[in-house]
C-alpha cells in the first residue's frame, strides 16, 4: 500500500511539472514571436542603385561611408549596380531593367531609394513611378547640374550635386608651375565623360595664360590616344576627366586607364575626384565621395524619421578640397617652397619640429619601448651568461667537492684503520704469557698512543659535524693568556723535543686576558701547533700574541715547508691540505684548519696565513679584546692536559 501511494505521488508531481512547462511555452512563445516581429518591422528597407560596379573607385568610398553610417539593427540596405561605364547599349539596359523589376516584385517594398551618380539618376527618374512607387529618392554624385536642380520641384526627390572645381584646379596647376602654358583635358565616350568635358569647355573665367585642349576618346581609339599622348612634352599638364571607353567602345577600368597614361607620359596628371590620389595623380581640388555619401545619408535619415522630402532642397555646392601627393610633386619637380594651410599634402616627409604632439609622443614612446627592450635583452643576455658561468663553476665546485669527499673517505678509512690495527695487534701480543714486563709496558704505551690518535680522528669528525650543522655550545669566559700558553708549552714540549724542534713562547705585557670559549681556544691552538709540528722538520715553532686595536692577535709561526700563495684560501676548506698527497704522507683528515676557522669566527674573530714556500708559515687569528676584572679570571690549568 505504501508503494502504491509513493507511485501515485510521483506521477502527480510529474503531471504538475508538465502543466507548468506547457503553461510557460504557451505564454512565452507568442511573446517571443511578437518581439521578433517587432524587431523585423523596425528595420526600414533601403535600395541603393549605383551607376557603376562594386570595384569602381567612387563606390568604394561610398561603401565605406555606408558601412560607418548605416545601423544594420534599424536599416536593411540592398545594392544594385548598373555597370554603366562598361555596358551602355539598349539591350543591356533592358536586361537590367527587367531583372531589377523582377527582384522588386519579389521583395518587400522599400522605404527609400538611394541613387549614386548621373546614369542611375536618369534611369530612376525615367521609371520613377514603376520602380519607386512614390517612395522618397535621395541622390549624390550628380554632374548634370540642371537635372539635379530640377528635382527641387519633385516632391519625392532631393540630394547633392557633384560640382567639379575646374577653375580652381587649373589655377592650382599654374601656381605649382608658373611656366605652364597648355593643359590637355582627357575625356572619353561615356555619358559622364561627355557631360564633364562640356562643362569644362563651357566654364567661363578660366586662366587666360593657359591654353586648354581636348584629348577626347569619343573621337580617338586607345592606340590613337597613346600616340598623341607620347608627343606631349615640355611645360604642359594633363587634366583627367574620364578614361573608360574609346570611340570603339573598348573599356578600361579606372586604374588600368591611369597606368596607361603614366606609361606613355611624364606630364603631371591632375584630377577632379579623390580616387587616383596616391596612385599617380598630382592632385587638384577634389570631390570626396565619402563626404558626399555621408551628407546624402544624413538627408535619408531625416526623411526616414518623418521629415518631408519636399522641405529639403537640393544641395548644389560641393565641398571640394585641395589635395596633393608630395611624391608626384617631387617627380614632376613641382614642390613649392611653402604649402598653404588649406592644402592637404599626402606622403609629405615630416620634420621633427613640425610633427604633431601626438606623433612626437608616439615616437618618444616607441623610442622608450625600443630602449627598454634593448636594455632588457642586454641585461637578460648578461644575466644568462653569468648564470651559465655560475652553473659551470658550480659543476666544477661540485666535482671538486666529490673528489675531496672521496679523498676524505679514503683517508678517514686509513686514519681509523691504522691505529685500530696497532691497538688490535699489540692487544694480541699482551695476551701472550711469554712477554716481559718491559715489553708489556711498551705495548701498552703503543696502544695508548694509537687510542689517542683514534680519539683525535673521532673528535675532528664530531667537531666538523657540529660546525656544519650550526649547533655549537659556546661558553665565553675570561681566561689568563700567559697561564694558558705556559700550559700549552708544557703539553707540547715532549713532542717538539722528539723532532729536535725548539718551542718558543713570546708573551706580551700590554694585555693579559682574553674573553673566549676555553675549549674552542685550546682546540684552535692545538690544531695550529699540530700542523706546525707535522710540517716542520727542523728549526723552531713560535707562539705569541699582541694587542691590535680592539682585538688580540695570536699567532703560531714555524720554519716548515711553507705554503704557496694560491693555496692561502683553500687550505681553510674542508678536507684540504697543502697537497692532496700530504694526507698520506703526513696523516690527518684535512679538517683542522676548517674547524679552526669556524671556531674563530664563532667567537667574533678571523684567521689567515702568511707564508713563503720552503721558509715557513705563520698562522694568525684574532679575538675581540675586553678589559675584565682580574677577580673574574679562571686559570686554565685544569684542562691543559697532555694528549
TrEMBL record:
<dbReference type="InterPro" id="IPR003594">
    <property type="entry name" value="HATPase_dom"/>
</dbReference>
<feature type="transmembrane region" description="Helical">
    <location>
        <begin position="360"/>
        <end position="381"/>
    </location>
</feature>
<dbReference type="InterPro" id="IPR036097">
    <property type="entry name" value="HisK_dim/P_sf"/>
</dbReference>
<keyword id="KW-0808">Transferase</keyword>
<dbReference type="Pfam" id="PF00512">
    <property type="entry name" value="HisKA"/>
</dbReference>
<dbReference type="InterPro" id="IPR003661">
    <property type="entry name" value="HisK_dim/P_dom"/>
</dbReference>
<keyword id="KW-0418">Kinase</keyword>
<protein>
    <recommendedName>
        <fullName>histidine kinase</fullName>
        <ecNumber>2.7.13.3</ecNumber>
    </recommendedName>
</protein>
<dbReference type="InterPro" id="IPR004358">
    <property type="entry name" value="Sig_transdc_His_kin-like_C"/>
</dbReference>
<keyword id="KW-1003">Cell membrane</keyword>
<keyword id="KW-0472">Membrane</keyword>
<feature type="domain" description="Histidine kinase">
    <location>
        <begin position="411"/>
        <end position="627"/>
    </location>
</feature>
<dbReference type="Pfam" id="PF02518">
    <property type="entry name" value="HATPase_c"/>
</dbReference>
<keyword id="KW-0547">Nucleotide-binding</keyword>
<dbReference type="InterPro" id="IPR050736">
    <property type="entry name" value="Sensor_HK_Regulatory"/>
</dbReference>
<dbReference type="Pfam" id="PF04392">
    <property type="entry name" value="ABC_sub_bind"/>
</dbReference>
<dbReference type="GO" id="GO:0005886">
    <property type="term" value="C:plasma membrane"/>
</dbReference>
<keyword id="KW-0812">Transmembrane</keyword>
<dbReference type="InterPro" id="IPR005467">
    <property type="entry name" value="His_kinase_dom"/>
</dbReference>
<keyword id="KW-0902">Two-component regulatory system</keyword>
<keyword id="KW-1133">Transmembrane helix</keyword>
<dbReference type="InterPro" id="IPR036890">
    <property type="entry name" value="HATPase_C_sf"/>
</dbReference>
<feature type="transmembrane region" description="Helical">
    <location>
        <begin position="17"/>
        <end position="35"/>
    </location>
</feature>
<keyword id="KW-0067">ATP-binding</keyword>
<keyword id="KW-0597">Phosphoprotein</keyword>
<dbReference type="GO" id="GO:0005524">
    <property type="term" value="F:ATP binding"/>
</dbReference>
<dbReference type="GO" id="GO:0000155">
    <property type="term" value="F:phosphorelay sensor kinase activity"/>
</dbReference>
<dbReference type="InterPro" id="IPR007487">
    <property type="entry name" value="ABC_transpt-TYRBP-like"/>
</dbReference>
